[in-house]
Design brief:
single chain; alpha/beta; 5-stranded parallel sheet; 44% helix; 10 strands; 384 residues
Length: 384
């Protein structure tokens, strides 16, 4: 895009709104591109996936790290591979705890800009620690260091997202979800591809349309002082990302937390008071769903929170007993697919809260102490 391009969002005039709205189309564009690259992707990955002891680490910093939190549980179960999520911010400080020379490694790096110091350092440390190391870089910036280094490396494959997903707003929105969808399509092409994922894109487009001009309260009217997002399994990763969006776009003026429904009872529930909004992401899995509904009912019985909202695809008397949002009808979705739907609500909520506290969503940190691309990180050479 040329530098003179300005956002065309209908109501807020921000990049953040435009980047939220563009997501469904970006996903399909990226998955179509993966279809076109399938032969090259398979040529790189197939020999690696046949290695019995291969470790696969999904990594990134901040929101990019949460991609791994959201998709790693399902990908590991679906593929039967040793897939875990470790943030680059942990890899660079404690490489000795996460990297082993004994097993071949595929490091999957997610990054919007690809210029965060930890993103580049994690790749270098992995090469240093693991003799048989390979890289898949999934990024939104063709000019970024992560992409350029992967293109020039014999042990790496670079996968570039559509240019508009290099979000210009402060918070990552279309970048995180497009990288999520793309990684899923790379490793689970029979389940997640440009055809099957159109159902997810259509449902999310319907969600965005239902929210109109984003001017009304997504979860009801506040004002809130705290918000808690709760989700089980990979949906806990979605809850974590949802909480971060609020912190980022309100510059911490609205305190945000996350947990699993079962973990929340073990202490964190203490933070709930009459100024707290609680949002429960209800699982589509019949077993896991029981635990989500148990806590939902408990929180409502407690009458401590200002509001407890459930978001679900399928209704239930427990859900209907209080404030709730039902996803637009579609075929049954697994939680991995539902995560995209839940993030639509979370992103719009964070945008509206940013505006309500008087922030500029594209540049919410008035002090400049928090930046779109992290600054001030000193990468120290590894010393055994």
């Amino acid at each position: 895009m040329p530098e003179t391009y300005t956002p065309t969002s209908a109501t807020t005039g921000t990049w953040t709104e435009e980047e939220i709205r563009q997501q469904p189309s970006c996903w399909i564009r990226s998955l179509n591109n993966i279809d076109n690259l399938r032969s090259a992707i398979d040529s790189f990955l197939t020999p690696l996936l046949h290695k019995n002891e291969l470790r696969i680490i999904l990594t990134g910093a901040g929101t990019s790290a949460f991609i791994g939190d959201i998709i790693a549980p399902w990908l590991a179960s679906h593929t039967g591979k040793n897939i875990t999520a470790v943030p680059t911010t942990d890899l660079v400080t404690n490489p000795m705890d996460y990297l082993s020379a004994a097993q071949p490694l595929l490091l999957i790096s997610f990054a919007r800009s690809g210029n965060s110091p930890e993103s580049v350092a994690a790749v270098e440390l992995a090469n240093q620690f693991v003799p048989e190391c390979y890289h898949l870089s999934i990024t939104c910036n063709e000019a970024g260091n992560l992409y350029q280094n992967a293109v020039d490396s014999e042990n790496a494959f670079a996968l570039l997202m559509p240019a508009e997903t290099h979000d210009r707003g402060f918070a990552m929105t279309s970048s995180i979800t497009t990288m999520m969808a793309s990684c899923l399509a790379v490793f689970a092409p029979k389940t997640i591809n440009s055809k099957t994922f159109r159902d997810v894109a259509d449902r999310c487009q319907a969600i965005l349309a239902s929210l109109g001009d984003f001017s009304h309260g997504v979860f009801g009217n506040g004002p809130w002082k705290r918000i808690v997002y709760l989700g089980s399994g990979g949906l806990q990763g979605a809850a974590r990302e949802s909480a971060l969006k609020v912190l980022e776009l309100t510059a911490g003026k609205l305190a945000a937390f996350y947990d699993s429904p079962t973990g929340f009872r073990h202490g964190p529930k203490s933070l709930v008071d009459h100024e707290t909004l609680v949002v429960v992401y209800v699982s589509s899995h019949p077993y896991t769903r029981q635990y989500d509904l148990d806590l939902l009912a408990e929180l409502r019985r407690d009458r401590q929170a200002m509001r407890v909202v459930a978001i679900a695809a399928v209704t239930d008397p427990v859900i209907e007993a209080g404030p709730h949002i039902l996803l637009p009808p579609s075929r049954p979705f697994i939680d991995m697919e539902q995560a995209f739907c839940f993030l639509m609500y979370a992103q719009v909520f964070a945008l509206t809260q940013s505006l309500s506290v008087g922030n500029t969503p594209d540049t919410p940190s008035a002090s400049g102490t928090v930046n779109r691309v992290v600054q001030g990180v000193v990468i120290h050479p590894w010393q055994a």
